[in-house]
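Quick one:
INPUT:
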């Protein structure tokens, strides 16, 4: 198999593993607390058990595929992960600039000032990171 194929497969398997492990954590531990939304535990025991069994089956296949294709562990830099997440946050923050929101229709002057203040404060918080 070509190296490009192997890299694509490995990348896909890492994505699957990462998200399934995160979902397993969410289903087996207390849900994290957020400002913008609350998790509602509407799963029921049967659904939770079936979902966890599915997660384990898929993770088992990820392990089997890793062995079959002789993939070694990939070192993941926590700094790189942090920078990646913060870069994604930056892109999302840019999407709430008043200018960016014009695609949804005009804002009143008061609303534009409010959104500009929200954007400015988020931008300031992002730019205040030390050691970046």
């Amino acid at each position: 198999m070509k190296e490009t194929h192997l890299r694509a497969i490995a990348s896909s398997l890492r994505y699957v593993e990462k998200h399934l492990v995160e979902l397993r954590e969410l289903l087996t531990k207390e849900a994290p607390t957020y400002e913008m939304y609350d998790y509602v535990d509407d799963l029921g025991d049967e659904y939770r058990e079936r979902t966890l069994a599915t997660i384990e089956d898929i993770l088992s296949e990820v392990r089997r595929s890793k062995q079959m294709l002789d993939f070694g562990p990939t070192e993941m830099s926590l700094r790189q992960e942090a920078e990646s997440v913060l870069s994604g946050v930056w892109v999302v923050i840019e999407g709430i600039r008043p200018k960016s929101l014009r695609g949804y229709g005009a804002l009143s002057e008061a609303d534009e000032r409010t959104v500009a203040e929200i954007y400015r404060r988020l931008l300031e918080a992002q730019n205040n990171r030390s050691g970046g």
